[in-house]
Structures are given as C-alpha cells and as structure tokens.
Amino acid sequence: MVACPTCRKPVVWTAAEKFKPFCSERCKMIDLGDWATEAHKIPGPPLLSEDDDGADFESY
Predict the structure, then answer these.
(1) How far is it, in rounded angstroms, from Cα 22 to Cα 45?
(2) What's the rounded Cα separation, in Å, for the pair 39 and 16?
(3) Cα angle at 34 between 30 and 7, to 5 degrees?
(4) Backbone phi and psi for residue 56, each to the nearest 5 degrees, phi listed first
(5) How far is Cα 17 from Cα 23, in angstroms, rounded to an integer?
(6) Are 11 and 30 spatial neighbours (Cβ–Cβ below 8 Å)?
(7) What is the DSSP string of the chain?
(8) Which pLDDT tens digit goes with each residue over 13-37?
(9) Is the pTM of this model over 0.70?
C-alpha cells in the first residue's frame, strides 16, 4: 500500500492499478497540472536565465 501523492488515499501497489501511485486519473492530472504550472519544482539553480536567447544551443 502507498498513499496517493495528491489526496493521500491508500493505493494497492499492483499491476492492476493503472494510475499508481495515484488513486485515479483525476489525481494524476492534478499532479501533472502542478508540474506544468511549476507548483512542484526540483530544487537547484535555473538551467537558463530569463534573458538567455538560447544562442548556446544553436549548435546542437
């Protein structure tokens, strides 16, 4: 058993649970939206500054 990261409801960790570690598609989409709006962040320095024009990446 694990707790759903969004609502904390218990979820059985089996292959039959198609949304694991989430309890439902709704909780999965809420979490995805939080990452997209940067409500969730991984700590660390920014990879690009806001005034970076991307010129360093043109050769890739």
Answers:
(1) 29
(2) 30
(3) 45
(4) -65, -20
(5) 8
(6) no
(7) -EE-TTT--EE--STT-TTTTSSSHHHHHHHHHHHHTTSS---S--SS-TT--SGGGTT-
(8) 999 999 999 999 999 999 999 999 9
(9) no
